[in-house]
Amino acid sequence: MTEPSGYVLEPLREGPDFTLYRGRQHGNPSPVLVIALSAEQPSPQALRRLEHEYSLASELDPSWAAKPLALTRHEGRTILVLKDPGGEPLDRVLERDQGHPLELTRFLRIAIGLATALGQVHRQGLIHKDIKPANVLVDDAGNAWLTGFGIASQLPRERQLPVPPEIIAGTLAYMAPEQTGRMNRSTDARSDLYSLGVTLYQMLTGALPFAAADPLEWVHCHIARQPIPPVDRAAVPDPLSAITMKLLAKNAEERYQTASGLEAELRRCLAEWESHGRIDPFPLGAHDSSDRLLIPEKLYGREREIDALLAAFDRVVANGTPELLLVSGYSGVGKSSVVNELHKVLVPPRGLFAAGKFDQYKRDIPYTTLAQALRTLVRQTLVKNEAEVGQWRSALAEAVGPNGQLIISLIPEVEFIIGKQPPVPDLPPQDAQNRFHMVFRRFLGAFARPEHPLIPDAQPYMPSPFKRIRACSRGRSICSRPPFLPPWPAEFGPRNRRGLRRPFSWPPDVHPKASLAGVRTVSIHA
Which CATH number is correct for 303-525, 2.90.10, 3.40.50, 2.160.20, 3.40.1360? Predict the structure, then answer.
């Protein structure tokens, strides 16, 4: 980071995390753009975004991006200095039109400029991951420059974990379905094309394709709802409406595969509009051929297993009876990929997903698999706003009562929610185990509610954690919702491939199909 320097700055846009300025450095007549942290005490994530964008300076070209020049400090704040290509932020252009669509010729020129700039980003091996009007500069000629590379990726493909939507990097209103982590698909350059489709939709109609009241609803919109075609909302030629809807396809394979293919068809639309005053329908994607081999990530041959999972989840949500699903198969055969298909159906009922894996080197640590799974639930709770955390605090405190220290000993993060707890009295071993079962059942029941069903995914299962599941499944407090989905490795069957001295077998008192009286058990072989 360079030494502090003086700048004369004029704000262009103020946001919750960053403020965009235009100005000049003292003694230097060249105009610059400055991105400054808005908060006096910014988050580490915001600082890392500025540092990451500065680190990409050698990859960005002034012809299609605002190139970083320096990372410095100004008036006690960290700022990123960019070369000013001119133009103004696209979101300001749209705000000035007060929700009205752009004039069609201007729309097409800006759309072509955007497709050109995004194509250059992808040719550099970058995925922007945050395409939106606030990160676009445009001029009167339709030229476009991209900014906001703070979360850009240099990987050709990466997998987004299903973290709470409040902490997903990016802007939810413009986010591709796979960026939410709920699609069981990877993020790649086509994710940027979806975000570009949202931007073009807003330019064409004056409104976003979806409206949502909270982060989880935004996720549901992108992965499940179909937008109203632009032609039904404004005076838009059919081909432009079809192009926009193709960009907004839920599956990446159904979108444009390249920005250059999109650019070619937008140029055709502009030529027809300027010469004839209309745009005749034409087949889309004729010039859309990728220079990379993109293998679809769709699961093939798993329709029966996925349907069984979805049917079990629907039964639990509808009837309120717990179910145990045993997903078996050898390591690497795709058990987790099958189970991860449930992330999409969890969004509408606001379901919770907790995953934990058995570690053979930690088999002597009690409850380690369940603790890992429930730790993810607690961490998801901690990132909520204060009002929601307060609701969880009340629910969990009521559930554990005076025995909260038992849960804190298993999951230390719980203390951040319910506070310090008094020590619990010593009891004889059997009584202590019964007390733990009761407290654990009530703790899990606080998460498994009709308003947010719970799916614990523990893999592979060993007898000790299964006893906990058995004990909890018999309690009324969680029988209202949760299906259990433990992938059950075939290595634990007669054909041992892990070098164990003897094949694993369920003890009679914990065998799943013999011990869960009143709980429906379904076996799925993956």
Answer: 3.40.50
Q: Cα torsion at 199, 182, 217, 353 (round to 10°)?
A: -160
Q: Residue 439 in contact with residue 400, Cβ under 8 Å?
A: yes
Distance CA 144, CA 483 (A): 50
The domain limits of the chain are 7-83, 88-276, 303-525
Cα(98)–Cα(93) distance, rounded to whole angstroms? 9
> pLDDT category, 360, cuts 50, 70, 90?
low
CA-based radius of gyration for the chain: 27
The beta strand positions in 281-402, using DSSP E, are 323-329, 352-357
Whether 86 contacts 156, CB under 8 Å: no
Which residues have C-beta within 8 Å of that of residue 164, sequence separation ≥ 6?
A: 215, 380, 383, 384
Interatomic CA distance for residues 171 and 65, integer angstroms: 19
Distance between CA 20 and CA 137 in Å, rounded? Answer: 12
Q: Report yes or no: 458 and 358 within 8 Å, Cβ to Cβ.
A: yes
Q: Where are the alpha helices (DSSP H) in 1-155?
A: 44-55, 90-96, 104-123
Residue with tokens 């549901």: 220
Three-class DSSP category at 407: helix
Q: 454-459 and 352-357 as β-strands: parallel, antiparallel, unpaired? A: parallel
Residue 56: CB atoms within 10 A of its CB come to: 17
User: Which among 55, 116, 120, 110 has a CA at the least distance from the CA of 88?
Assistant: 110
Q: What is the DSSP letter of 151?
A: T
CA gap 196, 201 in Å, rounded: 8
Span 266-309, pLDDT tens digits? 999 999 999 999 999 999 988 888 877 778 877 788 888 888 88
Instruction: Give the class (CATH, top level) of 7-83.
Output: alpha beta
- Residues 273, 309: contact at Cβ < 8 Å? no
pTM of the full structure: 0.79
Question: What's the token pair of residue 153?
Answer: 């990726």
Both tokens of 486, joined, read: 């433990």
Nearest C-alpha neighbor of 332 from the set 493, 487, 484, 456: 487
Homologous superfamily of 88-276 in CATH? Transferase(Phosphotransferase) domain 1 (1.10.510.10)
